[in-house]
Amino acid sequence: MKKAYPIPSDTAASQARASDPLNSAWVSANAGSGKTHVLAQRVIRLLLNGTDPSKILCLTYTRAAAANMSNRVFSTLSDWTSLGDAELASRIVALDGRGADAGTMHRARRLFAEALETPGGLKIQTIHAFCESVLHQFPLEANIPAHFEMLDTQMEASLFGDARRDMISGASAGAEVLAEAFAMVLERGGEAGLDALLAEIVNKRDGLRAFIAGLGDDFRSLLAEFRFRPGLTAEDIASSLWPLPGFLPDYFAGFARAAEAADARMVLNNILPYARLAFAEADPIRRLELLGKAFLKADGAAYEPAKAFKKVLLDRLPDLPERYIEAARAILEVSDRLALFRMLEGTAAALTVARWLIARYEHLKRSRGFLDFNDLITRTVALLSRPDAGAWVQFKLDQGIDHILLDEAQDTSPDQWEVVKKLTEEFFAGLGQREAVHRTMFAVGDEKQSIYSFQGAAPDSFAESR
Fold first, then answer.
1. Which of 110, 138, 199, 364 has its CA 20 to 30 A from that of 117?
2. What number does CATH give the domain 22-147+375-464?
3. Where in the chain are the domains?
4. Radius of gyration of the chain, Cα coordinates, nearest whole angstrom
5. At what angle do helices 320-367 and 176-203 cross, to 10 degrees?
6. What is the pLDDT averaged over residues 53-76?
7. Nearest CA to 392 among 427, 431, 425, 421?
8. Secondary structure of 108-145 in the HEC alphabet?
9. What is the pLDDT of residues 185-202, one digit of tens each?
10. What's the predicted TM-score (pTM) here?
């Protein structure tokens, strides 16, 4: 049997303040400090104070957390139905800090039945389940099928598989922009790289969709942001290095002869083999690669002329250090610029593939009347933000919610926070303001415990949303 340890008095006092249903509260606490206990206490105190169970909305991130929360609340309420007067009064005093008269105890014993009999039940659910219920209430306003179905993981994977096959067919059938982008991704990353990219697109599609919308239709505009002119190619950039500054062909020939005469082994072994290939190479990109191998060290840095070149060689070519530094600097600058260009070019190709894949997936999903897990949040945010209907929807929802409690707040994504913000906006302003009703907002979490960043969780938003 698990041993029960007494709660320190200052901790108990802090928990009591946080669970006070008269105050809105933002609670950040470490693991094991009783955050879930406080949230359950707050729900029970709201009920004990006369709040209609249907007016409480308790949101959490996972089904397991929702089930745990519900079990805690209903276990306490169930116990109260069978306790004797003295024990029940003691429990109420410990919870609420006030004396328990006969009326309060009668109400406490009725809470279990009230919570069970409330139409729709006590709303302790995941934020996704809540959003699904909102969308079922307002499908017309949300511009979705009235009887939409939720995609499970297997169905979602199947739908993306269909979208991927359609994308490959589109690339093969001559959709020029897609075909070029697809070929570039495949050339640079191979099949493994393509598979990794497509998986990342699937996982980050909502963020990508917003990013793509902000860029517009032409992703090559990314190149213009870094002053690459329209129509510029990688070959053009590499060609800008030729002739090599400081080492025109005649000077290079003299350099090679002088190195041989001086038996400059570093030059003969490290620089000349690649440099001779570079000076004979017609392809500008291959030539740039060879020049980099010739004039730069393995780590990409330039040699120190005083250490790299023998004195006898420097006596023959006194301007060699300045010429070498000029050439090495030019190689580094052009190599860096080419790397940037290729990165932006690859990014544009990846975004083109992402746009096509996401659009095709969305088309297939809509045509079959499905919503996926991410849609529940994004569609609800869009619904509550609509200038022509959002305020009315918020008002209708507001009529059924007086208290919002948010658990696991550190795992709430920015879009999920937006849902909560839209709901609480009506608590204190406009048509949602009901002077006779006390409204509260409660959030509890711990930024250090956030484990869902791969699903968009933003622990920083917990503090920012306060």
1. 138
2. 3.40.50.300
3. 22-147+375-464, 149-368
4. 34
5. 80
6. 90
7. 431
8. HHHHHHHHHHCCCCCEEEEHHHHHHHHHHHCHHHHCCC
9. 999 999 899 889 988 998
10. 0.68
